Amino acid sequence: MNRPGATSVNCLPHVFDQNNDYGSFIFTRYKHRIDDKLRKVGLKVTRHKKMIVKTYIDAIEDDKIYVDEETTINQMDSFIKIETRSGDFTYKADSGHDDLVMSNVIGSTYFDTQEFKNMCEMYYNELPSDYQNLINKSMDL
Predict the structure, then answer these.
(1) Helices 99-108 and 49-61, axial angle in degrees (round to 10)
(2) pLDDT tens string 2-19
(3) Which of 8, 98, 111, 122 is the most buried (most CB within 10 A)?
(4) Do residues 52 and 106 lie in contact, with contact meaning Cβ atoms separated by under 8 Å?
C-alpha cells in the first residue's frame, strides 16, 4: 500500500465504466503500523522491511517459495543487504531492479496470515480422505 499500491486500489472502483462488482474481502489486510488496532487493506513496507525480508528468506530456506523464473533469479542474485548513511541497513538491488524480488518478499508475508490458513484449511477439507491422509503422513500428524 505504498504509493503505487494505494493509488491502484483507489482507482479500481473507477475502471470499466465504474461497473466493478467486487468487495474489499479479496484483499489481504495487515496492520499498517505496529500500534494499529485494526488491519487495513494491503501491506505497507516501511521500517519493518528488514523483518519482511527475513520472512522471505525463511520462506525460501523452508521451501515455502520456489523460484525458477530466470529474471527473478537474476534479481535475487543482486538483492543484497546494504548499509545506510545512518549506520543501519536495508535490502535492495546493488544494480538494476528488484521489483520481482520485492513482489516475492511481500507475497511471502501472506503465509503467516489468517486468510492463508483459512484457505488451506478450506481446500484441505475439500480433499478426498486418501489425500488428506497423505498430507497428514507427510506432516507427521
Answers:
(1) 80
(2) 566 667 766 777 777 767
(3) 98
(4) yes
pTM score: 0.66
Residue 1 has pLDDT above 70, yes or no: no
As given in the structure block, the three cell numbers for residue 40 are 487495513
Which triple of cell numbers denotes residue 102?
Answer: 520485492
Please report, as a single letter, which amino acid is at residue 73.
I
How far is the C-alpha of 28 from the C-alpha of 41, rounded, in Å? 6
pLDDT, mean of residues 76-100: 87
Summarize pLDDT for 112-121 with one digit per residue, the tens: 888 888 889 9
Q: Facing residues of 81 across strands?
A: 91
